[in-house]
Amino acid sequence: MEVFSENIRLFTSIIGIYAIIWWCFEHFASLFELIYNSIKPYIKCQCKRTLQMQYGQWAVVTGATSGIGKYYALELAKRGMDVCLISRSEENLISLAHELEKFDVSTKVIVADFSYGASVYNNIELQLKDLDVGILVNNVGTHEDPDHFDKLSHESLWRMINVNVGAITFMSRIVIPKMKIKNKGLILNVSSGSQYQPTPLLALYGATKSYTRSLSIALNRELVNFNVKVHLIIPFYVKTNMTRYLNVPDKGNILSPNAKVYVKSAVKTLGKCTHTSGYWCHSIQFTLFTTLPEFVRVFLTHNFHIVTGATDGIGKCYAFELAKRGMNICLISRTKSKLNGVASEIEKTHKVLTKCIIADFSKGESIYEEINEQLKDVDIGILVNNVGVSSIIPDKFEKMSEQFLWEMINVNIGAVTFMSKLIIPKMKINRRGLILNVSSGGQYTPQPLMAVYVATKCFVRSLTVALNKELSSYNVKAHLLIPSFVRTKAMQFPMICKYGGNIFPDAETYVKGAMITLGKCSHTSGYFYHMIQFTLIDLVPERIRIYFSHIAFKNARQQYLDEQKVKES
């Protein structure tokens, strides 16, 4: 018995030591990185290099006429960089450009309203074509004042997606190819403390910042061999126009500085670490805040059943499992023949009613009016937000077409947002309902070569957890499903998936397991072996997970390309 007790003590000591090391690595790695890169020039006796020498002559700043963006433009100009200002107000742009000229630098202004979506980027790319862009500051962002998700208009939701998700994605895509050719450059992405926990009453905003974090970290790893850095800054409360609803004086305070004070601090970290709060007091706040369990952090911040993507894989299997339990099913997908086939099979096998809606979610905003019209007289009990799209194989961010990136944003982000927006008001009136959002195990680790796809799944996670809290008083649940690799038509990699087994189940096996959890928990992997995988993965620090996922996806990509060559020969 003594030997057993001694072994238990030894085991718990090892676990405790590992937990302390893991926690310190996660919370202080960025600080050590900042200190090392600050003193490295003195250790190696290197002369101090200007920002132009390190990255290039021009800095491009989006959302440049106020707040954090304006003061980054001023600080970069003060350091001798020419500055290209992008915003929607020509008058404010010209005024700021004149202000920057006192630093004896060149300026350029581009008028662009990012809320218009895809239409603005051709002109921006054309105007940046001849500039040596060394630094891109992706600062532009927007949100509404805190309110219930279903109270926000379609227009404001699309505006937030186009600005907070679209701008960071497509501005990065414009500058990365030239930065890779020059073998130098820096992209600074402005996130928010809301990336750390879902935010009820600001559910969509918090989800867009989870997207920003995941994309930034994945791209930083993806571009590491090209000497291109992606720098993520994570402010807490800063006194700007966007935080006007907070009771903070214009000059700010020690906890919530104004934009000028914040940027003066944050600019000193530029290029010296991969991510930072940018301000010493915010670093302390984040360290203390993230020691709390997530459900506490979320609390502190506040009968037809519809299946999207219903003709294949997980969506199709959910439709059959729900029908098996006597539920009428509304199927939504883009292929009429497949919809009719699945509907006919469900009616024949399970003797329930079906309804089909043809909709291509990649078309974006235009489809939801018709879906809303077809659902207006339907009593909806469960919504399964399953529809999603990914690249066939892992690929470099800048190699993906603009059209495909918009398709991924419209499908993976737009569908879960606007399908939820359509049905929540009825569920609140009925005081019952369940929204099941299908995410991915990728939400746990930003993944190079799958950067945008995984970032969209971080968005899904944040939105779902926030909505679950926001809707709890109405007896409406938001259920997050987090599968690892499941063998479906969309899953072309890793190649091991085609061999199956317990670790990589087919969709039917997976959904049978996941159905048991429906409505019984707020989030789940849905499958026993996936739960074990995620538990083990979570024991590994994030930076190490990112490193090995990069290697795995590079190998998967090469294996797929080799197989294609064999087929073609």
From TrEMBL:
Gene3D superfamilies: NAD(P)-binding Rossmann-like Domain (3.40.50.720)
Origin superkingdom: Eukaryota
Family annotation (Pfam families): adh_short
GO CC annotation terms, alphabetical: mitochondrion
Keyword Transmembrane attributed: no
Coiled-coil blocks: none
Name of the protein described by the UniProt record: Steroid dehydrogenase
Source taxonomy: Eukaryota, Metazoa, Ecdysozoa, Arthropoda, Hexapoda
